[in-house]
Every structure is written in structure tokens, then in C-alpha cells.
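Friendly challenge for the regulars: who can give me the C-alpha cells for this chain first? No prize, just bragging rights.
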Amino acid sequence: MTLKKLALATALVTAPFMAQAELQSMDDASLSSVTGQAGISISGDFSGSIGNVAYVDDGNKLNMEGISMTGFAISDTDPLKIDVIDDAGTAKIAISLPAMTGTVAVNAIKVGGTYTSGSGVTGGTNIGGVAISDINMSGTTVKIWGH
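First reply, four minutes later:
Bragging rights claimed.
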């Protein structure tokens, strides 16, 4: 191998190492002023169900069964946002809820009866159901911090 080829090979092998940035340690004061991204965003379609909610008073029961929560969609263009904020000198996590309208429905409200998981309420008198619609938590901000 000639000297020119050896020099070229050496230059090609060492070039990537010379291009690397040097890592340096930071003191606490410098590190405390470093910030990251602005926060995170969460979107999705949320729904759920509850088998039964029972109210019992002096042995009398009111059972609400077949409870569903539907239509709570959070779009990518208006997501739930989680940020770290400075609130009067205290660092807090702020969770901002977007517009999301949904419905909570109770299929049956029964006076009396006994609830069994997987079977529902046996006995009792059904007095109907209820739906709560257009629940909107838009503009709500929850703040979390240590004390």
C-alpha cells in the first residue's frame, strides 16, 4: 500500500470521530435553566360502562344499572394538553381539557331488587332510565403540584 492510500484510509476512518461534538458536564445552576418541550397532547375516543350503582338506606335499595358513557372524543386539532407552568413562583402541572361533549346514560333505575355481577338486578320495580347529554368540560384546567 502506498503512503497516499494509507493517508486516505486513515483520514476516512478518523473523520467521523473528529465530527462528534464534545459532551460537557453542566453545573446545577446551568442545568436548572434548561427547558424541554412545551408539554404533551392527548387525543382519542373515550367511552366506558358501569354495571350498577346502588343506593341503600335502611335496607331499601335503589339500583341504577347499565350505565354507559359515550361520545367523549378528543380530536387531534384540539387535544387534552399537559404542561408545566409557573404559577406565582410554584411549578405546577396544568391539565387543560378540550371541548368534548358526550352522554352518560342509565338504562334502568330499579327500586328494590338485588344486584349480582354479570346478571344485573333481579327483582325490584323499574321506574325508567335517564340520560345526561352534552356534558362539556371545555375550558377546565386542573393544576397539580407538591406541597
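The helical segments are 3-19, 28-32. DSSP finds two helices and eleven strands in the chain. Your move, everyone else.
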